[in-house]
Design brief:
alpha/beta; eight-stranded mixed β-sheet; five-stranded parallel β-sheet; 37% helix; globular
Length: 393
């Protein structure tokens, strides 16, 4: 996943007005790592407004931390007297209160974040306010993030099915990336004997290049490459489970040079949001369980806030014959329609993995996966009969 960021020379500068030197240094590194140029960093918020009025007038964005300020509204009002009305101001504070946030907006705040702050959300908001992404070209092709709302809902199955349909039925050069290093399954569904070494490669961002990718790639079908990995025995499952965002973006950029489409199985847990922040399309996989519903109710508001333009598609996969919630009940609970629903398949178990060639039109899930691919990528429909007779088995 890769931001096509503007260069430091032509990006509008950002001014950071923070509480102390350590906080200033931390946030400056985070902003510049996210492609946001910083031209002013100060530690004394109260004195900085008048002292640095010239720099503030030149800024394209001002980030001010009012936590601990004895008179935060007065400080924001004073700041607004030195800045043009069209310059966005991103306010950080310690009070998590809706009425307080509305008061700050009335005084000129563009957005308000209460501590503790999720860095990726803040940086994404800064990029939106600076319009860094609106005129940019994205990567070649599309990056589809497939996220299971809980373990066992079939995210790996759908990832494997999508890449097979896209590559074999539609002839697109496709990459399958499995970031669930603790339990990689995408390669197994596709017939790969063992996981690759993607997890080890992502530990060193500087080593990422096409030659090393060639050493770990697996190609179970024509025009389909699989990139996955498994935790080493000596790993503790903490630091090596989820690669950092810089490594993920570097991987996405490399894969874009050789694939027209990438389908990523997100890492488990909250780390999935790192992938969703940069995805072009998102597939959320749910089943009729209450943990799946709770995860949906937590994640969907976050997507609407942080990625309001992200094309998100829900898939309801009936993993067991009798679930607490039906697809209609699930859709009613989240207040959102579910366009793709996969019926329960009795034979769809681990013992049947070797008999699941997704490219066969006779496969029970083929029609559902084919329709999902068409809806996601706006692909033209392909005649199953013509494609099958063409020898794509």
């Amino acid at each position: 996943m890769h931001f096509q960021t503007r260069t430091r020379q032509d990006a509008p500068p950002t001014a950071l007005l923070m509480r102390d030197q350590q906080t200033s240094a931390t946030w400056r590194n985070r902003f510049e790592s996210g492609g946001v140029t910083v031209n002013l960093v100060t530690q004394n918020v109260i004195q900085s407004v008048a002292e640095h009025a010239t720099h503030l007038r030149e800024a394209g964005l001002i980030v001010i931390d009012l936590a601990g300020d004895p008179a935060p509204t007065a400080s924001l009002r004073e700041l607004r007297e030195f800045t043009a009305p069209n310059v966005p101001v991103l306010v950080l504070g310690e009070l998590n209160d809706l009425a307080y946030a509305r008061q700050l907006r009335q005084l000129g705040a563009s957005e308000y974040f209460a501590h503790p702050i999720e860095p990726n959300e803040l940086i994404l908001t800064a990029r939106r306010l600076l319009q860094l992404d609106s005129a940019n070209t994205t990567r070649n092709g599309r990056l589809i993030a497939v996220h299971g709302l809980r373990g066992g809902v079939g995210a790996s199955l759908i990832t494997a099915g999508l890449v097979t349909v896209i590559s074999q039925q539609h002839g697109r050069n496709c990459a399958a990336v499995d970031l669930n290093f603790s339990s990689p399954a995408v390669g197994s569904w596709l017939g790969c004997d063992q996981p690759g070494r993607l997890n080890a490669l992502l530990q060193d961002v500087q080593r990422l290049d096409q030659a090393l990718l060639d050493q770990i790639v697996q190609s179970p079908f024509p025009q389909l490459n699989v990139y996955d990995g498994n935790l080493d025995h000596e790993d503790d499952g903490e630091g090596n489970t989820v690669p950092n965002s810089t490594a993920l973006r570097g991987l996405s950029q490399l894969l874009a040079e050789r694939h027209s489409c990438q389908v990523w199985r997100t890492p488990p847990g909250p780390a999935a949001r790192t992938v969703l922040l940069d995805a072009d399309l998102c597939v959320l996989v749910a089943d009729g369980s209450f943990p799946s519903l709770r995860a949906a109710l937590a994640l969907l508001p976050w997507i609407r806030q942080c990625r309001p333009l992200l094309n998100t598609t829900l898939v309801f996969n009936q993993t067991r014959p009798h679930m607490p919630l039906s697809a209609d009940q699930f859709a009613h609970s989240i207040g959102q329609s579910i366009p793709h629903r996969f019926a329960y398949q009795r034979r769809l178990g681990e013992q049947a993995i070797d008999n699941l060639p997704f490219n066969r039109p006779s496969h029970v899930l083929h029609r559902a996966l084919a329709q999902l691919a068409v809806d996601l990528l706006k692909l033209p429909p392909v005649s199953t009969r013509r494609w099958w007779q063409g020898g794509m088995e």
